[in-house]
Here is the input.
Amino acid sequence: MTKRPLIHLGYYKTGTTFLQRHVIGNRGLGFIPMPEPCEKKRELTVRDAARYFISHNSGQLLSPWEKLGTDGRDFLVASARHDELVPALSHERFLGYPMAAGPDALSVFIRLHDVFRNARYLIVLREQRSLILSTYVQYLRRGGTASIDAVLSRRYDNRVAFFSERYFFFHFPLSYIVEAIGAESLLVLPFELLVHQPRDFIQRILAFSEAEPSEDPKFVRENESNSVFIECLFRYLNPLLQRSSLNAFSPVGVNVGAKRLDKIKSTVSRYVPSSLERHVGENLKARIQQRFPDGYFSETNRTTSEIIKLDLARYGYDV
Here is the structure.
């Protein structure tokens, strides 16, 4: 019997790398990556074909009105058929980039649903304040220059999309997706379950996707947290060391390279006192807490809990 494909939509900073490398990217657990059209790679990953739903071959972002070409669509439909392993596709970008409020997330989902009509979908949530903090640190790591206060207070000026708290109202995308595919085709799990009960987290994915593993799942930590102090310090240097859309492709910057820059930061972080690291981290948490006090996300989380039939209060969410 042909296996239904599994598409992992995100969010960012919810254990995505671990999932891609060790769960839905693991043949031993019963999954197989969907191949990328027009590419012949020895080692496929579950991310390879994802870019066709987000950007054009030219590197340009797809128009929100644009569908996949017939050739690419037919190839992907054929690649999503397998009798023994679950075809898998994953990219945290499917739900949009959080620091840009995910303006194309709906377009991306429509393209996915147009191609994979019988797919199952996986989404991993994370408590909003924790997610915002982790997203902000990642933003700095990739070249961002704005302070946490500037990020949280910025308002849309009818031009370039930026941070919006409404991106973190999870019931908006979940309501749409459930209406489109049915609740039985969507699994939503909290990141906190992965942190505290990784085996249960993985088993729920295996059961939902009807994967047939030939080995026991393993939990491996990926993308260990960067030094918050170092990332906050380097935001002043980012215009000189990185050129990206997060700093308007700084005209005075030179691309040191992500791996080389991470190595520099790792070296410098060894000399940061743990007390200073804690102080900066707690200060960021306090700023976010001040902007989003207890109860701020209660309404969206209550609605989300109803949609996914899971009590998010058990995992530390406002309800």
Observations:
- Strands lie at 6-10, 31-33, 86-90, 120-125, 186-190.
- The first helix runs from residue 16 to 23.
